[in-house]
Amino acid sequence: DAKTTQPPSMDCAEGRAANLPCNHSTISGNEYVYWYRQIHSQGPQYIIHGLKNNETNEMASLIITEDRKSSTLILPHATLRDTAVYYCIVRVANFGNEKLTFGTGTRLTIIP
Amino acid sequence: NAGVTQTPKFQVLKTGQSMTLQCAQDMNHEYMSWYRQDPGMGLRLIHYSVGAGITDQGEVPNGYNVSRSTTEDFPLRLLSAAPSQTSVYFCASNPGTGGSSPLHFGNGTRLTVT
């Protein structure tokens, strides 16, 4: 599986948009980009995923570059509850091959 | 739906003891997996299963056994606990449709081996 690179930490003011970058330059054509977050020591929480196109749901937006080598997770109006570690991972689309590689993620701190 | 349920939430073992971490899901998911999380190391895959009766090793399988006799349950066994197995363990499941469906995680078991 392709590896991802994320900055170790970021700050964002409450109410502003938080933009979290991820590099996945070795991504393959059948690999999805996924974002999860982890608050304290709870289980990872799914946020959003995409293959080629930009995606939006009730939590966030995902922007994937045209060459698919990088992506950005956008939390449009960050709140204090968004303080967490955010993981960007890539994942193959074939059934039976679900080996994922979680890196160390980005620790996002929302500042009041 | 309860989703993915892990028990116990906390456990302390002495070196050499054995135990089983339980994981159950009620979503009829084919795929289940176990991860461990250590400080500064993200999540690492221990074992996974693509269906009842089928298991395979992940990145860090040594010291752990798994079996999958039913779709719902995927227990993780520590045969002889070692301090290096002190960690937080997460179980996850997925419908088995590949990369188009998200993994669902449990809330973890925090294990300390003394």
The percent range for helix content of chain B is under 10%
Uncertain segments of chain A: none
Structural class of chain B: mainly beta
The fraction of residues in strands of chain B falls at over 45%
Descriptive notes:
The complex is a heterodimer of chains A (112) and B (114). With 112 residues, chain A is an all-beta fold. Chain A has strands at 9-13, 18-23, 31-38, 45-50, 55-56, 61-64, 70-75, 84-92, 106-111. Helix content of chain A is 0%, strand content 46%. Chain B is mainly beta. Chain B contains no helices and 11 strands. Chain B has strands spanning 4-7, 10-13, 19-25, 31-37, 43-51, 54-57, 64-66, 76-78, 87-94, 104-105, 109-113. Chain B is globular and about 40 Å long. At the A-B interface, β3, β4 and β8 of A face β4, β5, β9 and β10 of B.
List keywords for this structure.
heterodimer, A: 112 residues, mainly beta, 9 strands, 46% strand, globular, B: 114 residues, seven-stranded mixed β-sheet, 0% helix
Concise structural overview:
The complex is a heterodimer of chains A (112) and B (114). Chain A contains no helices and 9 strands. The model of chain A has no long low-confidence stretch (mean pLDDT 90).
Task: Note the topology.
The complex is a heterodimer of chains A (112) and B (114).
Chain A: E1 9-13, E2 18-23, E3 31-38, E4 45-50, E5 55-56, E6 61-64, E7 70-75, E8 84-92, E9 106-111
Parallel strand pairs in A: 1-9
Antiparallel strand pairs in A: 2-7, 3-4, 3-8, 5-6, 6-7, 8-9
Chain B: E1 4-7, E2 10-13, E3 19-25, E4 31-37, E5 43-51, E6 54-57, E7 64-66, E8 76-78, E9 87-94, E10 104-105, E11 109-113
Parallel strand pairs in B: 2-11
Antiparallel strand pairs in B: 1-3, 3-8, 4-5, 4-9, 5-6, 7-8, 9-10, 9-11
